[in-house]
Amino acid sequence: MGDTVLLSEQDKVLTITINRPERRNALDFATYNALTGAFKAATGRNDLHAIILQGAQQYFTAGNDLRDFQQKPEDESPGLRFLKALAATDIPVIAAVEGAAIGIGVTLLMHCDFVIAASNTTFRIPFVPLGLCPEGSSSVLLAKYVGIRKANEWLYSGKPFSANEALDCGFINTVTEPGESLATAMEIANNMAKQSLLSLKTTKSLLKRTLTPLITETFNIEREAFIACLNSPEAQAAFKQFFTKEKSIS
Q1: What is residue 248's predicted lDDT score, i.e. its pLDDT?
Q2: CATH number of 5-200
Q3: Are 39 and 52 in contact (CB under 8 A)?
């Protein structure tokens, strides 16, 4: 699956690392495809009890690699296929977040079972400022995690929020010292490894029982809305401004 995603297994725990540090671990089509393959391959196995997802070099992900948005969207994008594979994973998924989680980097956390973040982590959901709309069932899940008022604030403004704010709102489980999120995630994963696999899978299935149909429906509704927004003049102008700024910096 290439060097953009690294896999490591130990004691019934699979660690998946997004490995594009030169792009702040931004997710391009190839990385999405590799992540989809990793989560699909892990689902249904009887020798794994937990999955840890992290970004290389203590930076979670800058979200979608906007260069891929210059391509015509597919009927079902690689990003959506990844989110569906993540949502369908049958064992606990623990995210170890450092540095920043932006855009789909925040969306994917809503499909994880535990989120551990370092105190210096910045979260941001900049869809509206980019002329886009929520994706990956986040229009449903975010309000369920943090309430509609806070979801409105984060989605409409696109402004950054801190790990402490995310913890206070119930969006994440724990805040650690910088550089310690993986160790805390590993403690949780090792505890999962001691539990009954049948019990873990059954509990996860039951917890998601009423949400799964709604998530599936919202995936498809948001996909249509996202494509419409993506092709709008406002979104294309926002991307042009982004790339002009990026070119001037590089």
Answers
A1: 55
A2: 3.90.226.10
A3: no
